[in-house]
Structure formats: structure tokens, C-alpha cells
Amino acid sequence: MAQVRIDRWLWAARFFKTRSAATEAVLGGRVHVNGARVKPAKDVRAGDRLELTIAGVRRDVVVLDVAEKRGSATVAATLYEETEESAARREQHALERRAARPLGADLGARPTKRDRRRLDAFRRAARRSR
Fold it and tell me: Which CA distances in Å does 71 have to 19, 76, 77?
């Protein structure tokens, strides 16, 4: 097997949970093969460069192998290689997302009365320092 449909490959490489989600992404213009917007029936081969936009994060990957069936995550990881710039950009985006979380989002479960009072005091102090 030297080539496979792009929507099938994206599903097999575990970029999307369902094949229909992969198809929608391709139709929506969030997937480019070798710099060109494609349709879901476009065949992808080893060596092709893909630009994917998933949840607002752009990933650039190079296809190393093709597969029609969805396998384990370890097998899926061998199907592609992410470029260094893309990995660095994705890590930076994750750091920014973590830093942008609202105060107290990392507390976990519902706060106790004592935790809530501390959180309110912390927020008041943060507002005053602006």
C-alpha cells in the first residue's frame, strides 16, 4: 500500500477520533497537503508534508508511512514525524494556555469554605495591585 486517502490516514494516525471528524476538518480547510488545500479523497504518500490545524494549534508533520486501519497509539506515532518548529510552537501554546487559566482553576474539586475565602482574598489583592 503506497497511498491512502487523507481522511483515512488522519484517523489512523490518531489526529481525530472519528473518520467523519477528519473528513470535516479536510473539507473545512484545516488540512493542507504540500501547501495546497485538498479534498478528503486526496491520496497521501510517504514524504508528503501536512499542515493541520486542530483546536487552534497548527501542526506541521511529514508522513513517514501510510496505514488504512487504526492501530495503537504507538503504531500511530510511527506514521508521521512532527517538525521541530511545530513541536516548539505547540509547547509554547500549551504554556500560554496554562498561564492564562483563571485563578483557582487548578484547585481541582469544589473548594471548601476556607479555600474559597483564601481564593477571594487572593483575587481582591490581585485586583488592588493592578
Answer: 14, 6, 10
Which residue is associated with the grid cell 483564601? 118
In terms of pTM, does the model score above 0.70? yes
- For residue 21, how far is the Cα from the chain centroid? 13
Q: Which of 60, 54, 22 is nearest to 41 (CA)?
A: 22
Chain centre distance of CA 23: 16
Number of domains in the chain: 1
C-alpha distances in angstroms, 107 versus 73, 102, 104? 30, 11, 6
* The three three-digit cell numbers of residue 36, written as one number: 495546497
pLDDT tens digits for 97-127?
888 877 767 667 788 899 889 989 999 998 8
Question: Which CATH number characterizes residue 34's domain?
Answer: 3.10.290.10
Whether residue 127 is contained in a domain is answered as: no
What's the mean per-residue pLDDT of the chain? 91
* Any domain includes 10: yes
Write out the residue range of the structural domain in which residue 36 sits. 4-99
